[in-house]
Amino acid sequence: MHKSSPNIDLVKEFYLQFKNQNKQPYMDLIDDNVEWITMEYMPNGGEYIGKSDVFEKYFPAMLSNFKEFHANADEYLDMGNDSVIVLGSYTVKSKKNTHDIKIPFAHIYKIRNEKIHKFRQYTDTAKFHKILT
């Protein structure tokens, strides 16, 4: 049984709106100066600062590597201190093959003033490299 909290509800809402491509609702959940940190060897990985850097540069460039890319959250953990950890898996399909590949992830969110202020990703980048090369 998972407890809910305002911070978990905020992060769940972000996943839902992003998945459904409801841009304004998910952008409203993000701090203007958000820090978005992805694994160094993730496609287009690195650190992005600000909404436009994240949603106009990182995501379009990263997603262009795939035929399909979905982040499926399985578990939300409120860690206190305005931190939420999300455990789940990416379901990805490269442009080179037809089968889906699942790659586990851990996402850490920091919430400030009821908005996502920081995101940090942990995943198996070797699996991404393998399906993209």
Helix count from the secondary structure assignment: 4
Average pLDDT works out at 94
Number of domains: 1
Biggest sheet record: 6 strands, mixed
What is the ordering of alpha helices and beta strands? HHEEHEEEEH
- Give, in spatial order, the strands making up the sheet with the most strands: 2-1-6-5-4-3
Find the CATH topology. Nuclear Transport Factor 2, Chain: A
What is the 3D shape?
Answer: globular
Task: Give the CATH level 1 class.
Answer: Alpha Beta
The counted number of beta strands is 6
Which parts are unreliable, with pLDDT below 50 for 5 consecutive residues or more?
none
- Structural class by SSE content: alpha+beta
Helix content: 25-40%
Q: What is the CATH architecture term?
A: Roll
Radius of gyration: 14 Å
Rounded to the nearest angstrom, the distance between the terminal CA atoms is 40 Å
- Tell me what portion of residues adopts beta-strand conformation: 35-45%
Describe the structure.
With 133 residues, the chain is of the alpha+beta class. The protein has a single domain (6-132), classed as Nuclear Transport Factor 2, Chain: A. It is 30% helix and 44% strand. The protein has four helices and six strands, in the order ααββαββββα. The chain has helices at residues 6-19, 23-27, 51-63, 125-132; strands at 30-37, 47-49, 66-80, 83-94, 101-112, 115-123. The chain has a six-stranded mixed β-sheet. A hairpin with a 6-residue loop joins β4 and β5. The longest helix has 14 residues, at 6-19. The model has no long low-confidence stretch (mean pLDDT 94).
